[in-house]
Structure prediction request, 382 residues.
Amino acid sequence: MHKNTQKIYLDYSASAPLRPEAFEAMLKILSLENAALNASSIHSYGQEGRKIIEQAREKVAAFMGCDCNQITFTSGATESNNAVIRHFLEKFPDDMILISNTEHPSILEFRKTYQTQVIPACVEDNGLMLPQTIDDICHDYGNISLVSVMLCNNESGILQDIPALAEVAHKHGALFHCDATQVSGCLPIEDLNADFVTISSHKLGGPQGAGALVTKICGQEPVALIGGGQEKGLRAGTENIAAIAGFGAACKASAEDAGRNETLRQWRDEMERRLKEISPDIIIHGENVKRCATTSFFSMPSLKAQNMLMALDVEGICISNGSACSSGTVKPSAVLKSMGYSDDIAASALRVSMGWATEKTDIDTFLEVWEKLVKRQSKKQE
Ligand code: PMP
Prediction:
């Protein structure tokens, strides 16, 4: 497969490049001549399509440490998250849903329409959600049907103690949803103690437009789309077989190279040590709490994120300012604002995120260019 050697890509939290295994799996299907695989058709092409979907389901289930019948394929994490929240809003209209205030917009945005039903719980200044906070809110309201807290924050990489949070939700009779999009597969679903888990293909090196909702107990699955009987009637619509096959292949490949995360963590930590030497006023977010190995999120109040992003891009380096979900806009990080940071710090936040194809030289080159740009910037300000 062609690798773009001109650019250094350090924005895996937005989308990971397609893994060769996923590309191969999809290519096989996309290059079939004179054959349309619709998994609902009875003829042999249809059966072939069904077989591909079920083989992919086995790979996703193995990756998540669950059974095949717990997986509903969706178009991605946004759809999975939407399905869970809508299900609880509709099924329990008199009850509340408790979400953390650093959730992805595919959950947080429900607050705009359902202000009285969707209650935000605030993380601490270090980005962590305390079980006590969930406990207090559940106790005060008394009718919380669902608690939803993400495993790994998409901007900061901060990891929440999901089993402890789920335990508190269960104590109050609520079910628990976890958006594990940014680090799915790091724990078997049993260990997460969550009733619903969201995952997405393109964060793992699979194609965009595929994902899954994993439900712990059969019979409790939310309906994502109404229509035909696909996905046991839980997600209607003709399946995107090539994308599902690519998703399955990406899960298998991710499980096989999970050990590489330790190397990436070392590179990330070394990179942060160098960044501090270059810019002593840098703030590394989440430095003192549990974080995912592949992400570094930092602010330098003296720099504007947009200027740095553009200057880095000119040098062929792709990083990001926190979330990529705001139509290409550079806004102060909402996650940092929720953690109590000032506008200056939230507006100067940048995220470097690594993954399966990252090489040490990518980090070294980024640091060289970063040092050059910071020096240039300080000269301008003198
Ligand atoms: N949740 C989180 C934590 C994410 O990072 C993202 C993607 N940025 C989503 C949900 C939405 O994922 P998708 O693109 O698969 O809809």
Q: What stands out?
A: The pocket of 4'-deoxy-4'-aminopyridoxal-5'-phosphate is lined by residues 76-78, 81, 104, 106, 150, 154, 179, 181-182, 200, 211, 325 (CB under 6 Å). The chain has a mean pLDDT of 93.
